[in-house]
Amino acid sequence: MVDAVFTMAALQALRQALPEQTLALLAPEPQAALWRGHPAVDHLWLRTARDTTSSLVRQWQAEGFDVALVASDSWQAAWEAWRAGTPMRVGFARGWWRGFLTHAVKPRPAALERPMSVRQVRRAVAGLATAVEGSGRPPEAGGAEHAGEAWFRLVAAMGLPVRPQPPRIALTDSEVRRAVERLGLPDPAADSVPWVVLDVRSGAAPAARWPEDRWRQAVGRIHKTRPCRWLLTGGMRDRDFSRPLAVRLARELASWRQGGSAPGAVASEQWVFHLAGKATLREWLAVASRCAVVVAVHPASLHLAAAAGARTLGLAAALDPGAWKPGAPDDPRHRMLVSPTPCVACRRAQCPLDRRCLEGVTADQIAGALAAMLAQPKGRG
């Protein structure tokens, strides 16, 4: 899903360079909600489970496209563009299928994707390999290229000027209202209390999850001085973690409220909303767009929230924080907290050690960063 956000930024640059041309997007069906109504796309064409390669090639030929921009590492997409006879085929120079392309572009550095071996992790921690100062990047990761820069190279390969813009997901006010109503949230327009999303999803790496006690400590430190609506989000597989966390948080915040330690609190107010597994992707984006900050570990959540217009606070776990941070490197609306460990960018789904990249981020760090972000006007970059 992160690559889809990078593709969105590239298409926006393409639309800016070719405002009069028709841009069609062939996307997997699960991404339909992400692309619906996007201003850079004239025609959304979904690849479903019922589509065969032959049927897609026939449709491709019938459309008579002049250029195919293959924004994925799929050999099948490159082959379909070649088989359809599209004159100009631009894609990443990775794998044997580069032969199907007329313009093969340098892909994202493999060091940003290839996991470190257990031996490399242990050597880094032992001090035999050191991180690049201030970035958490091991020596083998090379330069400081952002993970999304390769997608702009696709546009540049077409001979077009590239003016990078942050990706933007198109959301309407009516979508936001429907999402808020269906999920049982207060009216954001009438609510004076800031909303904060705590996205606890871990994706395919259950180890990439911040400990429950840290979430509770951080929320407690903020809520005692700045009451917020805390929206716990994630997927269905995260509910075993998020449900007990929501229950305990609600109980703790209620006890603090009754003790009068939360200024401005009202006894009947609900502070914690458990939304994990309840919101569709489009609803999650709509809610995130109205929140003061989205706090997450998973890079997909951070990039999607940023594209929806939210400020983000990320916890770097098993990835290079400089390469995967949402927004521009100097954008103050998006922050990444990094544990000072040389193996933070290991890119491994399972930690072979003690999860020090997550365990090293304290509740005080999260609370301090979140308090600073809440003190600033929201705005949209």
Please state the structural category: alpha/beta
Mean pLDDT: 83
Which range does the strand content fall in? 5-15%
Number of helices: 14
The oligomeric state of the chains shown is: single chain
CATH superfamily of the largest domain: Glycogen Phosphorylase B
H/E element order: HEHEHEHEEHHHEHEHEHEHEHEHH
Strand order of the largest sheet: 8-7-6-9-10-11
Helix amount, in percent? 25-40%
Biggest beta sheet attributes: 6 strands, parallel
Q: Architecture of the largest domain in CATH?
A: 3-Layer(aba) Sandwich
Q: What would CATH call the class of the largest domain?
A: Alpha Beta
Low-pLDDT residue spans: 130-143, 259-268
Shape: globular
Number of strands: 11
Rounded Rg = 22 Å
Terminal Cα span: 21 Å
What fold name stands as the CATH topology of the largest domain?
Rossmann fold
**How many structural domains in the coordinates?**
2
Report on this structure:
With 381 residues, the chain is an alpha/beta fold. Helices cover 36% and strands 12% of the residues. The chain folds into 2 domains: 2-156, 3-Layer(aba) Sandwich (Rossmann fold); 173-374, Glycogen Phosphorylase B (Rossmann fold, 3-Layer(aba) Sandwich). Helix 7 crosses helix 10 (281-289) and helix 8 packs parallel to helix 9 (239-258). The longest helix is centred in the middle third of the chain and has 20 residues, at 239-258. The chain is globular. The two termini are 21 Å apart.
